[in-house]
Amino acid sequence: MNKIVLSLIVLLLINNNAIGQNNLISNFSFELISDCPSIDYASIDLAFSWDKALSTPDIFNSCSSSQDRGIPLNSTNCYQPARSGNGYAGITQYFTIPRTTEYMEVKINEKLTKGKQYYIQFFVSSRNCDGHQPCHSDAMGLAFSDTLYREAVIGGAEQIPPFTPAVQNPAGKILNDTLNWMEISGCYTATGTEQYAIIGSFKTSANTQSEGCFGVTGSYYYVDDVGVYGFDPLPDTLVLCEGGSRTIGKSFLDATYSWNTGAADSILTINQEGRYIVNATLGNCVFSDTVVVLENDKQLSLLPADTLLCEEEELDLSIPLPGTYLWSDGSGSNQISIVEDGAYTVEIQNDCGVFNHSFEVATETCGCNVYIPTAFSPNGDGNNDVLQCYMGCDFPYQGIRFEVFDRWGGLVYSNKSSEINSIVWDGTFKGKALDPGVYAWFFEYEYIRNGTVNHKTISGEVHILR
After folding, report:
1. What is the 3-state secondary structure (H, E, C) of the chain?
2. What pLDDT was estimated at residue 130?
3. Distance between CA atoms of 223 and 125, rounded to whole angstroms?
4. Strand partners, 352
5. pTM value?
């Protein structure tokens, strides 16, 4: 019992380090166990969070008095300490004849985020003991599943779980080190459904390369320090107080770093507003994260002053500063939509302190009215001989383009002048009078209100009468 409690203490110490690295695998080093493994029972399910997916993977721990289940493992011609802590797992990889292989699985601490990259890493060591012929293969990987996978052994036939491995040992690279721990790792982009990690061989016997394997000999591997690491060292947004500086970033395993500022450390000190990007390289994997840094006083100066709204117009405000918000209407969001006149106040509390802002909103009847006649008669009698555009607007405005099309969609008139008064059409195309009938027009214009450019498009029909 004391030895089991000791394993728990060691696990807590190791897991604290793993949490700092964003490891999503609980009991990643197989320290926390419900009972010491023995010659009678040493199944992987003795390790909390872990379970057998297929057949009977094993657990080893230093608390065991059995030379076959203890650590350092010390059975016939065999010796292997744990890579870290006091425990590790073991799975069999048979491939010389079609037989069932072993698989173990663990529930991930949280479902992976769709589109996010993760670094996957675990370590194996090939077993060579008990008088067996040394047998090694290249078949070992880790796959994800959205549900618990549990299969029974069926009559000695080879069974491969129906999953594509997220990472696996490179083909042809035989895992034959019996003294050291070999790393299997890589980067993986999540689909967003992953909830379980499964470790084992995802190759058929026919696709497995091996060495030293004869007859019915099978390969056996110890497994330790399983990790699924999300790279997320930076917040989305960060506030910078007046005259202050902030330190951003954190270390990520054994990665090397590069910032868009040229810095090459995992940590960066900043003292000005901007967009900061860090890239972390691990082997062939490159991870990236971005933070937008905002100067608190500068952003506060951009809060709205007294504002005039037209009736039925809506003022949408989105304040980018991180913090806690309290509006005069009781809202706690950094976004608010205003449709009524009145006095508005907001209190913002963040790392730089508590700040208050107030402004008034007034409403009035306003707008831009465009009038284009529905018919004109270009017959030279001096009455309605041209089509003109008339516009009344309470704000600065300008035209962008006015176009007329025939019933087949052909362009017969175009005016791209900003002067609305210049829109005058005499019903001709290339100097030739057009036939009576219905023509479609399209008008694009813009007006400026409260410093904002409003873009509008309208369309209609006009009749040429002769």
Report:
1. CHHHHHHHHHHHHHHHHHHHCCECECCCCCCCECCCCCCCCCEHHHECCEEEEECCCEEEECCCCCCCCCCCECCCCCCECCCCCCEEEEEEECCCCCCCCCEEEEEECCCCCCCCEEEEEEEEEECCCCCCCCCEECCCEEEEECCCCCECCCCCCCCCCCCCCCEECCCCCCCCCCCCCEEEEEEEECCCCCCEEEEECCCCHHHCCEECCCCCCCEEEEEEEEEEEECCCCCCEEEECCCCCEEECCCCCCCEEEECCCCCCCCEEECCCEEEEEEEEECCEEEEEEEEEEEHHHHHCCCCCCEEEECCCCEEEECCCCCEEEECCCCCCCEEEECCCEEEEEEEEECCEEEEEEEEEEEECCCEEEECCCEECCCCCCCCCCEECEEEECCCEEEEEEEEECCCCCEEEEECCCCHHHCEECCEECCEECCCEEEEEEEEEEEEECCEEEEEEEEEEEEECC
2. 59
3. 7
4. none
5. 0.70
Cα–Cα distance for residue pair 152/162, rounded to 1 Å: 14
Cα separation, 187 vs 117, whole angstroms: 7
User: Please, what are the averages of pLDDT over each run of 10 residues along the chain (466 residues)?
Assistant: 40 42 90 92 93 91 86 70 93 68 93 93 86 81 93 67 93 92 96 95 86 74 96 93 93 95 96 95 94 93 84 83 93 90 93 94 80 90 90 88 93 91 92 93 88 86 90
Buried b (16+ CB within 10 A) or exposed e, 63-74: bbebebbbbebe
Please, are residues 112 and 190 in contact by the beta-carbon 8 Å criterion?
A: yes
For residue 35, what are its two tokens? 């009972």
Extract the tokens encoding 234.
């930076």
Distance CA 210, CA 214 (A): 10
